[in-house]
Amino acid sequence: MKVRWPRAAGYNIEWDLINGDSVYEIRTKLQPAIERAYRDQRPSVLEIATCRFEGFTVADANKFKYRTKLEVEDRCQNHDPLQLWAAQLQSENVVDQQAVKRIRSVALAEARAAAEFAKSSPCLPPAAIMTDIYWEVDCATAAGTTGRHLFSP
């Protein structure tokens, strides 16, 4: 994997490399970037190293095209952030196996319902493409009219 963060140094931008398999590490390292954005209105470069289990698009649906079956199985068994997070919470006695199963079941049901809602919803007219992007723009606030959508002055 080629890291991209050296480019950030050339622009005097704070950067960090994050293990995308660890929810704790992601949360810990995101917080300073969030605080920097709100406090100083400064960007951060965060390279979160993780692995896609499936192809990127329908045209790239064959996960074995670029990786061996052994590599895919290893990634799925040993590097799945959701499984690692569940195991971490269980080891800390925050949840038990039954709770993990319930959470997974509820999440899958919610995802299926959201997908079904999206599929059954009518397509919006092309003119609607620029609405509901930023609340500030839709409501014509000062931030929406000055272009400062994300951070307060």
Q: What does it look like?
A:
The protein has 153 residues and is mainly alpha-helical. It has 2 domains: 1-50; 53-120, no CATH class. Helices cover 50% and strands 8% of the residues. It has 7 helices and 2 strands. The protein has helices at 6-10, 23-40, 69-78, 81-91, 97-120, 135-138, 142-146, and strands at residues 14-19, 44-49. The protein has a two-stranded parallel ribbon with strand order 1-2. The longest helix is centred in the C-terminal third of the chain and has 24 residues, at 97-120. The protein is extended. It starts with 5 loop residues before the first helix and ends in a 7-residue tail after the last helix. The mean pLDDT is 85. This is Thiamine pyrophosphate-dependent enzyme.
Key features?
153 residues; 2 strands; 2 domains; 50% helix; extended; mainly alpha; two-stranded parallel ribbon
Report the major sheet.
2 strands, parallel
What global shape is seen?
A: extended
Number of domains: 2
Secondary structural class: mainly alpha
Helix and strand run: HEHEHHHHH
Helix content: 40-55%
- Counting H and I runs of at least 4 residues, what is the number of helices? 7
Strand order of the largest sheet: 1-2
Concise summary:
This is Thiamine pyrophosphate-dependent enzyme. The chain is mostly helical.
Which SSEs are present, and which pair or pack?
Elements: H1 6-10, E1 14-19, H2 23-40, E2 44-49, H3 69-78, H4 81-91, H5 97-120, H6 135-138, H7 142-146
Parallel strand pairs: 1-2
